[in-house]
Design goal:
The chain is an alpha+beta fold. Helix content is 53%, strand content 8%. It has 26 helices and eleven strands. The strands form four sheets. A four-stranded mixed beta sheet has the order 2-3-5-4. α2 packs across α3, α8 crosses α9 and α20 crosses α22. It is globular. About 1% of the residues have low confidence.
């Protein structure tokens, strides 16, 4: 995945963005500062954001386009299509603050009252299934997924989950910041209980009960680095075996209760979690469990309730966790809601306005160029044996490319969307999506399905489907423009293409074969060689300090760092081929090679709050923008040649790391 965001300038730069440069910096000392220094100085973080990046600028521009689509669609007039009615009325309902505020927390009262009336643990089981259907994944996660060992078929998967904080480590770390954050979380949960009418003392007790139960779930959860190994998450079991492991959940009744087809077996991602869950549920009093269930309902619904709930949710999730100062404008939140709930209906309209078939073909041409370069790169690898290379070529040849938007759009017509029931609209669309996914169990995998909406500023590789996916939302400036200098396009969108291709061979992707099955196709010799080269990247990135006292997690970010390094190298190879041995003209004083690297570096320009930097260091498999730029180019002799860097300068790594 390429995650990381642009209002378009009146006259967008069609080569290097000269206004972003800090020419007082030396590109051989700090390339990121050279490429982005003036952009960072002139683009402070807006009060409603926790970070501001080139990705955000593009995402904002996309939101403006989506806003225009939705403001037309929300007008209740004859002749609207079913799709226009749905996206328009959901947006209208979201923007109707007066009606939303008048309802207070009435939309979740039935859930809260039902939970409050539970009389025994057996009744909790049925309630858990009901909440899962509503998208509130209490206690654990349950979903459909391709079978890791037979990727053509969809199976059920039970996994760890049920936490209110972003990661298990928030509950377990003992440093001062983590302790303070847990105190703030308990206070936040208590204030939410007060908003539904509890006394201060009762709210405090319930909040502490929530923290106690969630901490037990966190202790049983597998850490993020361990979860990068797909073999550690593959434990096929019969439903009866899972019942023996965790009898506190009546699994046949739960599976039936969430609307799943009858199944005899499933994958249990983290068996130790379910063994611990059984003890936690058995050892927790009914009042503790009820407090936890109520909190999970409130936490999931808060953004769709009246203003006091929205404000309290933002006070913790936005301010305390991420460092934002102000709530985002309501129209932006409403655009995101429609994109999240009815994404392909809105995306179809977006594609018509911004992309189309021509954009799809132009992008596909570059993808094929980069694939050709990867074939050359694989062929020339000295550390890989012919036996493993053969399997690698089979995998590369089998990668499918999905560009811009789906060939078949999702049908949302069965969802009831009304103009005066915002929370209800969200609930019904969430239930639709939950059921759609559960219905896949036992059926062939649809490899043409998209897992991002078309306006998304991102891209991804799917190891189990062995395909790369580029939504239309990212195929714009500053990543790509048909009129822009080729060298900059190669450095920007070319690096994205190369990045996603390289994911097929990173520490996770390499464990899946050409068909997308979890299978070891490596010789021991090649596996050892890969691990040795990967360790170089782990050590390099672990040394980077994102804010004082907080380092990048080189093991967590290994896959993305591998893809950044490999992807940029492939894109540079494509640029060299396009030059066909010619020096190429200078533009704005820069050679094609320099413009290539600047095109790449300027994609990563960003500012972020200390709070979000600390959070992302714990949960994000991507390195911060500074190190996605510097950490990559310092490993490339081609960069050092382009900018005449000397041995011993910071942008000349010793040793230089290279996997692909």
């Amino acid at each position: 995945m390429f995650t990381a965001a642009f209002a378009q300038d009146a006259k967008p730069a069609l080569s290097v963005d000269l206004n972003a440069l800090d020419k007082s910096a030396d590109p051989c000392v700090d390339f990121y500062q050279y490429a982005c220094g003036n952009w960072m100085a002139t683009h402070p973080i807006p009060p409603s954001e926790s970070r501001w990046a080139r990705f955000n600028e593009l995402a904002d521009r996309n939101k403006e386009i989506l806003r225009g689509i939705l403001e037309k669609a929300e007008v209740d007039k004859p002749g609207r299509t079913r799709m226009e009615q749905q996206i328009g009325d959901l947006y209208y309902a979201c923007m109707d603050e007066k009606t939303v505020d008048a309802k207070g927390y009435n939309p979740i009262k039935p859930d809260l009252e039902r939970i409050g009336a539970l009389t025994d643990k057996k009744a909790v089981e049925a309630e858990a299934a009901r909440l899962h259907r509503e998208g509130v994944s209490v206690f654990f996660a349950f979903r459909s997924t391709p079978d890791p060992k037979n990727s053509t078929m969809t199976i059920a998967d039970a996994d760890q989950g049920g936490l209110g904080l972003p990661d298990r480590d928030y509950y377990l770390k003992t440093d001062d910041n983590s302790v303070k954050l847990r105190t703030a979380y308990v206070d936040h949960v208590a204030r939410m209980f007060e908003l539904i009418g509890e006394s201060a003392d009762a709210a405090k007790a319930d909040a502490q009960a929530v923290m106690t139960l969630e901490t037990e779930l966190a202790r049983a959860s597998l850490d993020r680095v361990s979860r990068r190994d797909p073999n550690k998450l593959y434990h096929p079991m019969s439903v009866a075996e899972l019942g023996e492991l965790c009898p506190a959940v009546g699994w046949p009744a739960f599976i039936d209760g969430i609307g799943a087809p009858k199944i005899d077996s499933l994958n249990v991602s983290v068996p130790d979690f379910f063994a611990a869950l059984d003890k936690t549920m058995a050892g927790s009093g009914l009042d503790v469990v009820k407090a936890y269930l109520k909190w999970q309902v409130m936490n999931a619904a808060a953004p769709y309730l009246s203003q006091p709930f929205v404000d309290e949710d933002f006070a913790f999730s936005g301010k305390t966790l991420r460092g934002a100062k102000e709530l985002r404008p309501r129209w932006k939140r409403c655009v995101d809601t429609v994109d999240g709930e009815l994404g392909e209906a809105l995306g179809e309209q977006y594609v018509d306005e911004t992309f189309g078939a021509e954009g799809k073909q132009r992008t596909l041409k570059m993808v094929r160029e980069i694939e050709t370069e990867m074939g050359k790169d694989l062929k020339g690898l000295e550390w890989m044996t012919p036996e493993t290379k053969k399997q690698a070529f089979l995998k590369l040849d089998a990668i499918a490319n999905k560009i811009g938007y789906p060939d078949k759009w999702r049908d949302y017509s069965s969802i009831r969307i009304t103009r005066d029931d915002f929370a209800g609209d969200v609930l019904r669309s969430t239930e639709f999506e939950q059921q759609r996914r559960i219905n896949k169990i036992g059926k062939p995998v649809d490899r043409m399905e998209w897992h991002m909406t078309p306006p998304t500023v991102n891209a991804y590789y799917s190891p189990q489907e062995n395909n790369i996916n580029f939504p239309a939302g990212i195929l714009q400036l500053p990543f790509y423009n048909a009129k822009r200098d080729d060298a900059v396009n190669y450095g920007a969108i070319g690096a994205v293409v190369g990045h996603e291709l390289t994911h097929g061979f990173d520490d996770q992707g390499r464990k899946f074969d050409a068909q997308g099955d979890l299978r070891d196709w490596w010789t021991k010799e090649d596996n050892d060689a890969f691990v040795q080269r990967a360790k170089c990247l782990i050590d390099e990135y672990t040394a980077f300090e994102t804010i004082p006292g907080v380092h990048v997690n080189g093991k967590l970010t290994l896959g993305e760092n591998t893809a950044d390094n490999g992807g940029l190298r492939l894109a540079f190879m494509a640029l060299v081929d396009s030059l066909d041995g010619q020096a190429g003209e200078k533009i704005d004083g820069f050679t094609p090679e320099q413009r290539f690297f600047l095109g790449f570096g300027q994609v990563w320009c960003q500012n972020q709050t200390p709070e979000i930097a600390r959070l992302l260091a714990q949960i994000d498999p991507h390195s911060p923008g500074r190190f996605r730029a510097n950490g990559t180019v310092e490993n490339m002799p081609e960069f050092q040649k382009a900018f005449a860097c000397k041995v011993g300068q910071p942008m000349v790594a010793a040793p230089a790391c290279r996997v692909w």
